[in-house]
């Protein structure tokens, strides 16, 4: 295994060109011991940034660990020291065998020689299409994540001292090496590297032109499944807004009641009318019933599209449960009863106890802060209403929106603080798998978000029964929240990048590749898709729960999302570092959250329809008591829920062809396992006859 040193100019040229010598991966790159992994080209995939005080002997030791075979406790990766042993970066790539083994461990499916998708098996690797060409066999995002996957799985085979560090940073048996190096300040950053040519082509096909379709396969290949699923859902959801937007425009145009309500939501004061405010029969009733059915159909059709994409991208049979624990997982060393590996073990009852005694009370505290903010909003609303009655001026009319705006700002700030608290709580719960960690973190944020965003609206609709206030509040949320999101997510990052960060990243074609790699590390880290999904979920809630009181909701959301697709694409391509994206089969817990909102919409819309003056007058004329009206509403609600259930059953979660393909994959995997456990007998021996004439 080569060490850093030699002619620095030659090192730089070889790194930039990615060329290798026949016996090694190239001067400066660690050696490749496997004959099938020798290549004439090595693509730099990942950059590791070292601490400023890391000594050369520590860096050389780290290079040896990264390049050592897996059976010797290494990651079996290719490592380049950068300029020399004293530099603060290490550039990583991966040989063929390491990538193929990781493909099997992750449970990815790839194209077999017969053209069908099959669960990849390392022992059967030669029968998979393009398995000798890693650039065609695996996407760039998959290869980069596999490098991180191997580094996160590095564990010490015995107690040893890290060269160049104090004795306090000794590695003990089965310690996570990468996490330990991070806590010691040796590893300060790790990021996947952009490919400028591929990024340029993707940008042209994605947001630079006038095309409407999303290049989903290119997004999946460059950024990974998680990002591709988000943009696929954003695209699908945006075009799904067209029917309710057309319906909302029609109701607003043809309904005099809708004209009056729109005027109220804009002016902030009541418009004179002979009828009481509220959803009228006709347009609003059609809107409410349409929204309840629309939300179910959209989510069922999305599940079909999601399963098709999962099959196409080979992520429908992931096997995370049997992989190494995530880096942040800790516990007492023991033997995993499932895999037989020595790894940290943590009792499930302790995790449940931590969630019950710590996580739940803290989440409850934040929900209490939401209620406090809601009470302050009502107090402020009463004050400005009194002020408007006293002054009756343009200024007082403008002040009517101040409580709503201040409350929206308060809820956004509280949500930001809560996300940090939720992350700390989920770390404390100590989940083994990365997916379990993400699901519990997402669940915490979802509970708070639902309460934070919809508590005031539900209180106005169900308790105060003030439809004009509900309409004004919803209009304020739609306008202010979307403006805040655009400013905080795009405008501010763009200005910071354009006038503060970009001048420090200026580069030319003649700059060494190490400097270009460092420039990528100077970009801010990608904040993830949490905020993006939350924004879509809140939108979906506004539309499915309350849009019958404000028919233009879908129109405003459609206009926002058409720009959102391009701004999100620009943001991830230009304003942030490239993220690591683990393979994923769907939207996970987010999909469940959207379905829950879809069912809650039945209750919300039925209640809002009860406030219709036409229905109230009809009930009074018919002599119905409030109890009978409530029972009828509950009956209608149950009927609509039954209709939604029937629709969800009639629309299968996956297309028939995908179901058959997945059954074939499962059957093939079982056959392969059976042959490994019980190899077929030798026919020549079994059929040998002892008959003699």
UniProtKB/TrEMBL annotation:
It comes from Gasterosteus aculeatus aculeatus. Residues 219-663 form the Anoctamin transmembrane domain. GO terms for molecular function: chloride channel activity. The lineage of its organism: Eukaryota, Metazoa, Chordata, Craniata, Vertebrata. Signal peptide: none annotated. Residues 1-24 are annotated as: Disordered. This is Anoctamin. Belongs to the anoctamin family. Keywords: Membrane, Transmembrane, Transmembrane helix. The chain crosses the membrane at residues 355-379, 399-421, 441-462, 474-496, 536-559, 592-610, 630-651. It is found in: Membrane. It is a multi-pass membrane protein. It comes from the Eukaryota. GO terms for cellular component: plasma membrane.
